[in-house]
Amino acid sequence: MARKKIALIGSGQIGGTLAHLAALKDLGDIVLFDIVDGVPQGKALDISQSAPVEGYDAKISGTSKYEDLKDADVVIVTAGVPRKPGMSRDDLLEINLKVMEQVGAGIAKYAPKAFVICITNPLDAMVWALQKFSGLPTSQVIGMAGVLDSSRFVHFIADELNVSVEDINAFVLGGHGDTMVPLARYSTVAGIPLTDIVKMGWMSKEKLDAIIQRTRDGGAEIVGLLKTGSAFYAPATSAIAMAESYLKDKKRVLPAAAYLDGQYGVKGTYVGVPVVIGAGGAEKIIEISLNSAEQKAFDKSVASVEGLIEACKKIAPKLA
Ligand code: APR
């Protein structure tokens, strides 16, 4: 069986980390693409030179030509501009929308069968635009945010309770922004919901609220520290987990920005929900029941994503 092909559009901080992780996990041959000539080629050569030490056989190449994406099985998109301190993800909208138009056309022409994972921010609006620009089926285009947001949530809980991250499951719904909805009721430590953890007195309500807020601000905290860019290790790892679930038909249930066609009462918008990811792409959206406070927070998050989508339609009327 021929090796799978993974194309990475954008070879910056996240793109390079994606390539390294995909190689280490032997997911397939890797093509790094960027508009800046030399960067994808240089990173491909550097990562290839780690292969003899690590013992992987993946072919890793760099290019600035869309035709080299031909017949990719998975495309992960990080092309665009990241945040600088003081910027919100939404500030990136206009620049990155133009990038999605070019990338969408390239995917449509050379890799129309690929499973496409978008990481570029503002995530929910960019994955929506990328699906429209590419014309690929909505089940084939998904956005990476929930795995990252949930992983941040898990990290903070594990750190606070001094327990293994392996025994924690956390769920974050909604858009990838200040309105994201970390769900304490559906997040568990060894099966015990966080709400019960508070009742048991293992963690105070104030501490849990502070962790929820820190999860929401997780990206901004890192931007503030790095000053020259945004997070890249955890975003790359999160997208690789999604790619792996698709390539190996694992059917993992992962939170991701998926196209809603009536689920959760939402139509025509991408927003973070639990999704089964397998060989069919985004195979099934899981509709969990929300209490009134959770529903209110989710609705607010959806409204904020819809606002960004409206802004996209004004900038690029052909998306309307
Ligand atoms: N086509 C292809 N690549 C492009 C294009 C384009 N039209 N425009 C920009 N790029 C490339 C840049 O040359 C750069 O190498 O995208 C890459 C982005 O890399 P970084 O600036 O290092 O950004 P990164 O940290 O990888 O984040 C990428 O993901 O999480 C989001 O907010 C983040 O939107 C940002 C994206």
Automatic annotation (TrEMBL):
<dbReference type="InterPro" id="IPR011275">
    <property type="entry name" value="Malate_DH_type3"/>
</dbReference>
<feature type="binding site">
    <location>
        <position position="89"/>
    </location>
    <ligand>
        <name>substrate</name>
    </ligand>
</feature>
<feature type="binding site">
    <location>
        <begin position="119"/>
        <end position="121"/>
    </location>
    <ligand>
        <name>NAD(+)</name>
    </ligand>
</feature>
<dbReference type="InterPro" id="IPR022383">
    <property type="entry name" value="Lactate/malate_DH_C"/>
</dbReference>
<feature type="domain" description="Lactate/malate dehydrogenase N-terminal">
    <location>
        <begin position="5"/>
        <end position="143"/>
    </location>
</feature>
<comment type="similarity">
    <text>Belongs to the LDH/MDH superfamily. MDH type 3 family.</text>
</comment>
<feature type="binding site">
    <location>
        <position position="83"/>
    </location>
    <ligand>
        <name>substrate</name>
    </ligand>
</feature>
<dbReference type="InterPro" id="IPR001557">
    <property type="entry name" value="L-lactate/malate_DH"/>
</dbReference>
<dbReference type="GO" id="GO:0004459">
    <property type="term" value="F:L-lactate dehydrogenase (NAD+) activity"/>
</dbReference>
<dbReference type="InterPro" id="IPR001236">
    <property type="entry name" value="Lactate/malate_DH_N"/>
</dbReference>
<dbReference type="GO" id="GO:0030060">
    <property type="term" value="F:L-malate dehydrogenase (NAD+) activity"/>
</dbReference>
<dbReference type="Pfam" id="PF02866">
    <property type="entry name" value="Ldh_1_C"/>
</dbReference>
<feature type="binding site">
    <location>
        <position position="152"/>
    </location>
    <ligand>
        <name>substrate</name>
    </ligand>
</feature>
<dbReference type="GO" id="GO:0006099">
    <property type="term" value="P:tricarboxylic acid cycle"/>
</dbReference>
<dbReference type="InterPro" id="IPR015955">
    <property type="entry name" value="Lactate_DH/Glyco_Ohase_4_C"/>
</dbReference>
<feature type="binding site">
    <location>
        <position position="96"/>
    </location>
    <ligand>
        <name>NAD(+)</name>
    </ligand>
</feature>
<keyword id="KW-0560">Oxidoreductase</keyword>
<keyword id="KW-0520">NAD</keyword>
<dbReference type="InterPro" id="IPR036291">
    <property type="entry name" value="NAD(P)-bd_dom_sf"/>
</dbReference>
<protein>
    <recommendedName>
        <fullName>Malate dehydrogenase</fullName>
        <ecNumber>1.1.1.37</ecNumber>
    </recommendedName>
</protein>
<feature type="domain" description="Lactate/malate dehydrogenase C-terminal">
    <location>
        <begin position="148"/>
        <end position="310"/>
    </location>
</feature>
<keyword id="KW-0816">Tricarboxylic acid cycle</keyword>
<feature type="binding site">
    <location>
        <begin position="10"/>
        <end position="15"/>
    </location>
    <ligand>
        <name>NAD(+)</name>
    </ligand>
</feature>
<feature type="binding site">
    <location>
        <position position="34"/>
    </location>
    <ligand>
        <name>NAD(+)</name>
    </ligand>
</feature>
<comment type="function">
    <text>Catalyzes the reversible oxidation of malate to oxaloacetate.</text>
</comment>
<feature type="active site" description="Proton acceptor">
    <location>
        <position position="176"/>
    </location>
</feature>
<dbReference type="GO" id="GO:0006089">
    <property type="term" value="P:lactate metabolic process"/>
</dbReference>
<dbReference type="Pfam" id="PF00056">
    <property type="entry name" value="Ldh_1_N"/>
</dbReference>
<feature type="binding site">
    <location>
        <position position="121"/>
    </location>
    <ligand>
        <name>substrate</name>
    </ligand>
</feature>
